Amino acid sequence: MRTTTIIYLAATVLLLTASLNAFVITSAYPYLNGDYPYENSSAVSSFTVPMATANLVTSVNPSRSGGVYPPSGSYPAGTSVEISEVPGYGYTFVNWTCAGNGCFTGPLSYGTVAMNNNITETANFKSTKAVFYSFLANANPNIGGSVSPSIGTYLPGTVVNVTAKPALNYGFVNWTCAGIGCYGGTSPTSKVALNSNITEIANFVYLSNNTYVLKTASNPPAGGTVSGAGYYKAGSRAHISAFPSIGYVFTGWSCSGLNCYSGVKSSQNLTMDTNITEIADFQKNQTVYTLTTITNNQTDGSVLFGGNYTIGSVEVISAAAAYRHSFVNWTCAGIGCYSGASPFAVVTLLGNVTETAHFK
Fold first, then answer.
1. How confident is the model at residue 298 (pLDDT cuts 50, 70, 90)?
2. SS3 assignment, position 65
3. Cα separation of 231 and 203, whole Å?
4. What is the mean pLDDT of residues 285-302?
5. Residues 14, 61: Cα–Cα separation, whole Å
6. What residues are paired with 113 via a beta bridge?
7. Cα–Cα–Cα angle for 272, 278, 284, nearest 5°?
8. Is residue 118 within 8 Å of residue 73, measured between CB atoms?
9. 285 — pLDDT class (breaks 50, 70, 90)
10. How far is CA 90 from the centre of its chain?
11. Per-residue pLDDT tens over the stretch 184-199
């Protein structure tokens, strides 16, 4: 960049002419003792002083989803620029996002930008094309059994009922899988919601003459879960465990088969010398806990609900401020208690709980 330095006499007058992007100084005459400048005074050669400009950068997201007008460019500071968008095939406009003071945001397809500084405007689009996810299921080994369905294409959220059926002399072991929401458990039947591409593999084992099956179940099904089911070599050791759900307690095992276990320990080792079935028995936990609700000052407000409830109960607490008072927050003590700024909340009773409502 070239810089020119010009020295003027005192009280020099500059005559300016404005152009689109600059001020052009066309002449300069010196005053002498306050008088009108002499006509014979020499004028300074004209030169240009650039005006301030601001850059507008426009783009689309994702790429090739549509078009924007105007394209990126520079504008004199203070200029108002109208922007607009055109969606591409298979896309619909969502909104504008931007950066810079005076930029335009929102769901309208067009707007005005004040170019007082550099501004970036992005037109956001979304696809209107239908999205499908693929489902693929296989057997491992292939001769070990069959799966249904084995392949398919589905809309997002579709629930697929998948089933594994062992072949003769084979037994189902478990599922291994890949994909969001896939099933990797030990039940031969399951429901899978398609929220991504999913692959399910049904694993089978050959049942030789010295292989035995251990089956497990929960009673009632909502009472808890059981681990340990599977296929075992004769004489090998299996391990079973019962895990009660919230609000239930484990009461014992009922079983069938040589050397099966029918005691009250939640975990136990078994020797697999025959086929065995183990059922974990659960019952509702009748333990009672107290939910106490109080206020920090009874004249400032009141609380509702509270009392004695069985373990796992989900209870509502509510606070109401008195006239000319307002609710502040809850403080609490106990497992699963609520401490927060909402006057309405829920508490899961896993122990005795005290909730205090504060008002001001």
1. confident
2. coil
3. 12
4. 90
5. 49
6. 81
7. 155
8. no
9. confident
10. 26
11. 988 899 999 999 999 9
Q: Checking DSSP bridges between strand 353-359 and strand 170-178, what pairing results, if any? A: unpaired
Phi, psi of 328 (to 5 degrees): -105, -65
Round to whole Å and give the CA distance between 122 and 81. 15
Q: Where are the domains of the chain?
A: 12-45, 53-127, 133-206, 211-284, 288-359
> In sequence order, what are the beta bridge partners of 348?
314
CA distance 305 to 344: 11
Alpha helices in 144-218 (DSSP H): none
Residues 217, 229: Cα–Cα separation, whole Å: 9
Three-state DSSP state, 242: strand
CA 291 from centre of chain = 33
Phi–psi pair at 221, nearest 5 degrees? -55, -35
| Average pLDDT of the residues of the chain | 86
What one-character-per-residue DSSP string does 252-310 give? Answer: EEEEESTT---SS-SEEEEE-SS-EEEEEEEEE---EEEEEEEES-TTTEEEE--EEEE
Q: Which residues, at least 6 apart from 58, have a Cβ–Cβ distance to it below 8 Å?
A: 68, 69, 70, 71, 72, 83, 120, 121, 122, 123
Please provide the size of the chain in residues: 360
The more confident residue out of 251 and 34 is 251
Q: Return the pLDDT at 50.
A: 56
DSSP class per residue in 58-82: EEEESTTSEEEESPSEEEETTEEEE
Q: Among all chains, which residue has been given the structure tokens 């309208």?
A: 108
List the structure tokens of 207.
């049942």
Place of tokens 């300069």: 28
Higher-confidence residue of 199 and 8: namely 199
Closest CA to 76 of 19, 156, 140: 19
Q: Pairing mode, if any, of strands 73-76 and 53-61?
A: antiparallel
Q: Could you tell me the sign of the dihedral formed by the alpha carbons of 239, 240, 244, 245, in that order?
A: positive
> In terms of pTM, does the model score above 0.70?
no
